[in-house]
Amino acid sequence: MGNVPTTVKHCLSYEQLIQDYPWLKRWLLEEKEIVPTGVKIQLIDMLSGTGLPVIEATSFVSSKWVPQMADHTDVLRGIQREPHVRYPVLTPNMQGFQDAVAAGATEVAVFGSASETFSKKNINCSIDESMLRFEEVIKAAKERQIPVRGYVSCALGCPLEGHIEPSKVSQVAKRLYEMGCYEISLGDTIGVGTPGSMFKMLQSVMNEVPTNALAVHCHDTYGQALPNILTALQMGVCVVDSAVAGLGGCPYAQGSSGNVSTEDVLYMLHGMGIETGVNLTKVIEAGDFICNALRRDTNSRVARARTL
Amino acid sequence: KAAGVDSTLPEKVKIVEVGPRDGLQNEKTIVPTETKIHLIDMLSASGLSVIEATSFVSPKWVPQMADQVEVMKGIGRKPGVSYPVLTPNLKGFQAAVKAGASEVAIFGAASELFSKKNINCSVEESLQRFDEVMRTAKEAGVPVRGYVSCVLGCPYEGKVAPEKVAHVAKRLYSMGCYEISLGDTIGVGTPGSMSKMLEVVSREVPVNALAVHCHDTYGQALANILVALQMGISVVDSSVAGLGGCPYAHGASGNVATEDVVYMLHGLGIQTGVDLPKLMDAGAFICRTLNRKSNSKVAQATCKL
Questions:
Q1: Which residue numbers delimit the Pyruvate carboxyltransferase domain (chain B) (predicted)?
Q2: What is the structure's pLDDT at B304?
Q3: Alpha-carbon torsion (A122, A127, A128, A131), positive or negative
Q4: How much is the pLDDT for A281?
Q5: Annotated catalytic, A238?
Q6: A301, B180, B237, B260: least CB-packed within 10 angstroms?
Q7: What CA–CA distance (Å, rounded) separates A225 from A242?
Q8: What phi and psi values does residue A277 have, to the nearest 5 degrees?
Q9: CA-CA distances (angstroms) from residue B94 to B50, B54, B89, B91?
Q10: Among A224, A255, A261, beta carbon nearest to B222
């Protein structure tokens, strides 16, 4: 949320990133402000009124690494929890998990990578080592009957390794699922995927994880998100991640878009006669609100077209 | 042919590049003749096989295309590449042929209100006007492409019946158009409405004579194009850098960007003959000249860390 690129939210090696990419430090520290807690709470409350069933509220990553999420406890405590809406939070490790539970979290998420290099660069450990960390979290979550969602990043390509074998994605997805994640969100982290690679990757993952436990998290960096989501739907996937107003740029391509806009996804789904339970107009309003607060334009084409 | 992930996709897709005409016509800035010529030459070098070069509409109505003759005469005509031009009537057709055009295009609408508002006559009347052009073109051996606008929605009428689209497409095809480009003029279509419309139209016009011209105003263009491919369509119109805004929603995007279409097609293993880096060079050139950002996400993404 806010102006922090999605991958920085997921990535623990913030120091490493800003060391390697000086423009990122300038961008984050000099050009962008941290979004006030009140604004975050209002955004989430507005989204709660749209019919969205799941709203990822915040991240219990150390505020040393991701200052934008330092108010995680205040946010979780400040939001009006709508019944029938779930508010998962990211928890990279036991510390984060414990803080999340103390703050009232009722669902958490862990995130692995399909790319060894990306894993090492971002969270300073191999995929296997990260799985051991998550195992702890999942075990503790199970004891408290807290559902855990698993993310797999770089599912269609890695900024460092390039091509990612579908079998690697299915291995990681399978591990997370067998460890106890109820759902696995497959992320095209740098948006390079196309319906071709999406099809091949899903075919492979569906051999290991039931389709109804899969979700897709497409980035729109190359404009491919909607056709990729369409392909996933045609293959039976029925959970889609998206961000209101397309918030969250791609840190690997300065100025590029990142997350696909919830508004544009809804427009497509409704146009296909697929029910989502979500009121598009209210989502556009929430998008308007956050874009005004951030003093930036929306990334959603639907929002832009509707407000003209 | 039903649309689904099991559908056999075409091995090859022909891209009809409409940037120099549809794109530039709808840009706020009027572009100098030299720039248009250079753009078309760069596009010719990128491997595109069809590039809509200009429009022989009266400059009184479309000042951006006033240099139609100089453009036609100034471009380097690459062998194997076609440079169709718009011809709204017989006078335009004659001027086009005189300027060296060897392929032309005519326009119909699937919406009565749109037709009346835009060209001051009913759809049927507009098709009768084209009769003359068709006859003359046939005699001259000049192929004619037909466009149908508002196929997935109209800014005035709202919903447009697929049967109406099929009716107009069939008329244009029977009149002699070798190909019918179905245009989602205001970009409101989704894979749902696209597949319904194509199902109906393909009963009246062979699918290999159909093309889709999707606008990205609501971000649906690539998804709509994918569904069209799944239903057997193998001709796609697009505009380099996504030139050409939507005239009905000021500031909204219009034409889908050729770079983004090519990226998707190549990712699907479909041949287009297009060299994407060279295409992106053409896009970068025209955006620099127009002093605007590209509408192509692929172009925007190329600044890598």
A1: 13-280
A2: 43
A3: positive
A4: 97
A5: no
A6: A301
A7: 10
A8: 75, 5
A9: 21, 14, 9, 5
A10: A224
Give the predicted TM-score (pTM) of the model: 0.92
Which residues is A59 bridged to in the sheet?
A: A90
Contact (CB, 8 A) for A261 and B219: yes
Is residue B300 a contact partner of residue A223, using CB atoms and an 8 Å limit?
A: no
- Which phi-psi region, left, alpha or beta, contains residue A195 (left: φ > 0; alpha: ψ -120 to 50)? alpha
Contact between A190 and A219 under an 8 Å Cβ cutoff? The reply is yes
Question: At B14, which amino acid appears?
Answer: K
**CA nearest to B216 within chain A:** A301
Give the three-state DSSP class for A116: helix
Question: How many alpha carbons fall within 13 Å on the CB side of residue A230?
Answer: 33
Is B189 an 8 Å CB contact of chain A? yes
Contacts of A251 in chain B (CB under 8 A): 305
CA atoms of B17 and B274, how far apart (whole Å): 11
* Residue A224: Cβ-neighbour burial (10 angstroms; 0-12, 13-18, 19+): buried
Q: What percent of chain A has pLDDT over 90?
A: 78
Contact A111, A153 (CB under 8 A): yes
Residue B85 — φ and ψ, nearest 5°? -135, 155
Residue B67 to residues B34, B44, B70, B250: CA-CA distances in angstroms? 10, 19, 5, 25
Per-residue pLDDT of A139-197, as tens digits, reads 999 999 999 999 999 999 998 899 999 999 999 999 999 999 999 999 999 999 999 99
B58 touches chain A (CB under 8 A): no
Residue labelled with tokens 């998420």 = A109
Rounded CA separation A65/A14 (Å): 5
Residue of chain B nearest A263, judged by CA positions: B218
Residue located via tokens 């620099």 = B288
Q: Give the H/E segment covering residue A9.
A: helix A6-10
Residues in chain A within 8 Å Cβ distance of B252: 301, 304-305, 308
